[in-house]
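Note to self: keep these together.
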Amino acid sequence: MNPPLEPPPEQPPGLLASVRAVSREPEPEREGQRWGFGAFLLVEAVFILSAVFITALASTSGTDLSSSVSFVLVGSMVPTVLAAATAVVITRVRGNGPLIDLRLGWDWADVKVGLKLGLLGILLTVVAATVWSRVVGTQNATSAIGELVDGTALPLSAAVVMFVYVCFLGPVCEELIYRGLLWGAIERQGWSRWAAFLLSTLIFAASHLEPLRTSLLIIIALPIGIARLITRRLTASVVAHVVNNFLPGLTLLLVATGVMS
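Structure:
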């Protein structure tokens, strides 16, 4: 008599199954959170005002704003870091802290999801950027930092700082603001996670203040938002964002140091 066959091991749900399951799961609790859209508007005000202040300071000192390495790096980094720091402070003062309010819980499964969607994001970015550059022209499809290093060799220290910001610091700060604070503000209104996903994606793209690249940024942001959507935590979207930015950041580093032309 043959022994009974054992049932095959359960396979983890695929990406599409995970996305479909989101609509059937209850909304997460946000007890103790006393901040909402006003907190996000304050963070955006910190970002804009600090960027305006840096621009005015550079102008009064006679700095050439179109070619200054230090201005582009400082003007990109400082407002983003200040805004993210403000978001963290708000969760401590008006809520439960960033770990709970911004959904920063750690799970290795989230890292795996972020890696997969980050790799998907790289492929999507390459395809979208290629198509977009043909539509609007290569010059118009380039970011501010990309325009700065285009064909220009930078000091090694500046190139490394730029690489760290583009690949690591920038993604972490932006995730805290848009898929952390903004997402939480939307959920606190009782709106669905799908609404949080769509609105945070659109506002994230528009907030870069690069009108010609907004539609491209929306496409790039989709896998990052999906990582946040299906895991309900920020870790996955941070990992996806870091992975998605790694190839562009590495390219900028090689161009800035003269390794690539």
